[in-house]
Write a structure and sequence with these properties.
It contains 27 helices and 19 strands. By secondary structure, it is an alpha/beta fold. It folds into 3 domains: 294 residues, Rossmann fold (3-Layer(aba) Sandwich); 155 residues, Thiamin diphosphate (ThDP)-binding fold, Pyr/PP domains (Rossmann fold, 3-Layer(aba) Sandwich); 140 residues, Rossmann fold (3-Layer(aba) Sandwich). The strands form 4 sheets. It has a 7-stranded mixed β-sheet with strand order 9-8-10-11-13-12-17, sandwiched between helices. Helix 6 runs parallel beside helix 7 and helix 15 packs parallel to helix 22. Bound molecules: thiamine diphosphate (TPP).
């Protein structure tokens, strides 16, 4: 027992080893303190809250019962891992979560031995846990793979691909299905209905029931004894879940907030399971914090907030977000065109499609966390004459790359990709950065790739995509607010593959793609003040390139700099390829490409991330000046 009741138990627990010294009767108090600490932390930092609050007891119970870190615990998505971080040696840094230089908002291998696997994109945990389990088996060393996966994450195909192979791990694989009947939005589809049916058709497992059900896996004599009881027979009759068909031993449902149930269930599975086990734990998102419990999104992701009232700090009023501009523009298109439909993969509010859904429920599809399906579903819709908009964050579209290539691009189907969160995204860090879409899309034959320089351009691009039936077309735009330009009353139909000159000069040409345009214009001001007449072009299209415009600028300027919010292989690579193919560099033209660096950048404020990436105005100026100081042999004159 805690020697001094005034000392919070949490102060005595800095790692799971400390936790395991506590008596079961102390765990309730510890969980309560852990919950308060989580709320106080997110109140100060903002971030993911509801999911973490739902797994406080589960976090305590798993670390209490299992031998972490040797038992490899993997939190699917990892957004619910703040309580886990607090209990695994990171309490002193937890208030730096999601800040520059601070802890990640997800699990991360470099952060702690208790994070054996980095997560953030959903539904990877069972595959990874299986890998750990099988590796330990092959190496003949102890250690399980434990995956904690939400019912939302369970909607993704990858989870089933992993379960389909679970037998390979024997009893070293434990899957804990954390069923809170919520994704970010309410969960969708048949699986969600199935889980609800499972929960409502069975009472929570009692202690005796758990022991009996597990006893089925016990050695023969015990098993026989247990089999005699009527209740056991009833337990058998209730079997046959989807998970059992896939080869799991299903245990559940279990009340995920009741430590008196949770601990013995986990102990039984730890000690007695003979094959892969799936424990179906029922929890409540936002549990124990009224403002979260009562919120429609259960406080999935929040701004900093007042812990007493739950009131979140409001972002200062500013221009509308790109997301909301897109949603409004798409609704306007759909009002006059019944072929337009919209698809989201579990991100209705994040993509703005909740607004579309409110207007056009029949033409709006939330497919769950299923980006691959979303893309091929859109391909089918397009092939049948609809005009589908697939609104997916840049980072999550990565998961559907083969579908984009094989189902959409090769068949030249007019699927519209609305790519939100393009470029660096701030607090979510490297796993969520939209760095690669131009690279992976503009390399594909048939694909048209646009990037909006501001919110008015986004309206034009939404309209252009709606009208374009010749093949697939993508347009990208960043997280956050627009730059404050007026929105057009009537959108323009952009000519495919044509950019625009925003500012005319004679010596330096900056070719911008996307929202670095504002920085390019600032840089042009500075260069102009130094007597360097500067052209700024907004290329609009990474594919097809406006080769006519680019050629003209290359032939009439001394330095050409490309600027983009994407990784190597994007606009700069395409421009350089064109220039060298056409021999435009032969006469000594100086070309520089500015793009994201070849590293995975950690979380920070977006401006700071772009500064680190070298893509702000002063760095554009530096690049130009440096290029001008080079003679044609590439030797820096200043150094000579
Ligand atoms: C591949 C992918 N698509 C979308 C997301 C965005 N996302 C983060 S959490 C989440 C909901 C997860 O729901 P669930 O697994 O039930 O966990 P809960 O938050 O309810 O605890 C979604 C859609 C993601 N992380 N990864």
């Amino acid at each position: 027992m805690n020697a001094n009741p005034a000392t919070p138990l949490l102060d005595t627990v800095s790692t799971p080893d400390d936790l395991r010294k506590l008596k079961p009767a102390q765990l309730r108090q510890l969980a309560d303190e852990l919950r308060s600490e989580t709320i106080a932390t997110v109140g100060q930092t903002g971030g993911h809250l509801g999911s973490g609050l739902g797994v406080v007891e589960l976090t305590v119970a798993i670390h209490y019962v299992f031998n972490t870190p040797d038992d490899r615990l993997i939190w699917d998505v990892g957004h619910q891992a703040y309580p886990h971080k607090i209990l695994t040696g990171r309490r002193d840094r937890i208030r730096t979560v999601r800040q520059g230089g601070g802890l990640s908002g997800f699990t991360k291998r470099s952060e702690s031995e208790y994070d054996p696997f980095g997560t953030a994109h959903s539904s990877t945990s069972i595959s990874a846990a299986l890998g750990f389990a099988v590796a330990n088996k092959l190496k003949n060393q102890p250690g399980r793979g434990i995956a904690v996966i939400g019912d939302g994450a369970m909607s993704a195909g990858m989870a089933y691909e992993a379960m389909n192979n679970a037998r390979q791990a024997g009893n070293r694989l434990v899957v804990i299905l954390n069923d809170n009947d919520m994704s970010i939005a309410p969960p969708v589809g048949g699986l969600s209905a199935y889980l609800a049916k499972l929960v409502s058709s069975r009472p929570f497992l009692s202690l005796r029931e758990v022991a009996r059900r597990i006893s089925r896996r016990l050695p023969e004599p015990l098993h026989k004894a247990a089999k005699k009881t009527d209740e056991f027979a009833r337990g058998m009759a209730m079997g046959g879940t989807l998970f059992e068909e896939l080869g799991f031993y299903y245990v559940g449902p279990v009340d995920g907030h009741n430590l008196d149930q949770l601990i013995p269930v986990l102990e039984n599975v730890r000690d007695a399971a003979e094959g892969p086990c799936l424990i179906h734990v029922v929890t409540q998102k936002g549990k124990g914090y009224a403002p979260a419990e009562n919120a429609a999104d259960k406080y999935h992701g929040v701004q900093k907030f007042n812990v007493v009232t739950g009131e979140q700090v409001k972002a200062p009023a500013g221009p509308p977000s790109y997301t909301s501009v897109f949603a409004k523009a798409l609704i306007a298109e759909a009002e006059t065109d019944e072929r337009i439909c919209a698809i989201t993969a579990a991100m209705p509010s994040g993509t703005g499609l909740d607004k579309f859904e409110a207007k056009f429920p029949d033409r709006s599809f939330d497919v769950g966390i299923a980006e691959q399906h979303a893309v091929t579903f859109a391909a089918g819709l397009a092939a049948q004459g609809m005009r589908p908009f697939c609104a997916i964050y840049s980072t999550f579209l990565q998961r559907a790359f083969d579908q984009v290539v094989h189902d959409v691009a090769i068949q030249n189907l007019p699927v519209r990709f609305a790519i939100d969160r393009a470029g660096l995204v701030g607090a979510d860090g490297a796993t969520h950065a939209g760095s690669f879409d131009v690279t992976y899309l503009a390399t594909l034959p048939n694909m048209v790739v646009m990037a909006a320089a501001d919110e008015a351009e986004l309206v034009h691009m939404t309209h252009t995509a709606a009208q374009y039936d010749a093949g697939p077309i993508a347009f990208r735009y960043p997280r956050g607010n627009g730059v404050g330009v007026p929105l057009p009353e009537t959108p323009q139909l952009l000519e495919i593959g044509k950019g625009r000159i925003v500012r005319e000069g004679t010596k330096v040409a900056i070719l911008s793609l996307g929202t670095r345009l504002a920085e390019a214009l600032k840089a042009a001001d500075t260069l102009e003040a130094k007597g360097l007449s500067t052209t700024v072009a907004d290329l609009r299209f990474a594919k097809p390139l406006d080769s006519e415009l680019i050629r003209k600028l290359m032939l009439s300027h001394e330095v050409v700099v490309t600027v983009e919010e994407g990784a190597i292989g994007g606009l700069g690579a395409h421009v350089l390829t064109m220039a060298s193919d056409e021999g435009l560099t032969d006469a000594g033209l100086k070309i520089r490409t500015m793009r994201l660096p070849d590293v995975f950048q950690d979380q920070d404020k977006p401006e700071a991330q772009y500064d680190e990436a070298g893509l702000n105005a002063p760095q554009i100026v530096d690049t130009v000046l440096k290029a001008l100081r080079h003679n044609s042999a590439g030797v820096e004159e200043a150094r000579a």
